[in-house]
Amino acid sequence: MLRLSFDPFPVLQTSRLILRRMELEDAHNMYIMRSDDQVMRYLDRPKAVSSEEMVNKIKQIYNDTEAGSCIQWTICTLDDNQLIGNICIWNIDKNHHRGELGYMLRREYHSQGLMMEAIKEVIQYGFNVMNLHSLEGQVTPKNIPSIKVLERNGFVREAYYRENYLYEGKFIDTAVYSLLNKKSLYKSL
After folding, report:
1. How far apart are CA 105 and CA 103, in angstroms?
2. More confident residue, 87 or 7
3. How far is CA 19 from the centre of its chain?
């Protein structure tokens, strides 16, 4: 079983990004991102209604991180400490060394390769530091940009669930992608 501790919180860096701990001061920028129709169109969850709601969300993230069930980073550019997105490993299954990748980016930062950088760094952390055996990404099949970023990072489609969950009165399909840790300590067992 994995034993996870994110204290001190791991700060990650790419050539253009800093991935740091989410702070309460990020609530307003998180609200801007999570209330944007374009950003939320494939996420099948309610849009944010206020910065105060995001403060509560960040507090919940702190609790989940402390419990070892999730780790979430704020994505910032190197020259600005402001939230432009977030990325996480959540739904961590400690018994089976699995986690699910989740991410979103403010609209004005789309199509610049920034999420590719962030995902690559988080994959390395998940496999090399957390010792995960696999990462999973679940996407709405219509979310082609998200599917492309997963595939470019080596994820392979494993499943397609038809109408597997209900959101706002409609049944939604889910495509499931996964990536195996080629260096897993458990390959030889």
Report:
1. 7
2. 87
3. 12
pLDDT of residue 90: 96
Domain count, the chain: 1
pTM, entire model? 0.92
Q: Indicate whether 113 belongs to any domain.
A: yes
- β-partners of residue 99 are 135
Cα Rg of the chain, angstroms: 16
Q: Roughly what angle, to the nearest 10 degrees, separates helices 114-124 and 144-152?
A: 50
Q: Would you say the C-alpha torsion 77, 28, 57, 44 has a positive or negative sign?
A: negative
Phi, psi angles (nearest 5°) of residue 28: -65, -45
104: domain CATH number is 3.40.630.30
183 phi, psi to nearest 5 deg: -105, 15
The encoded tokens of residue 28 equal: 């307003």
Domain that holds residue 106: 12-133
Q: How far apart (Å, rounded) are the C-alpha atoms in residues 151 and 44?
A: 21
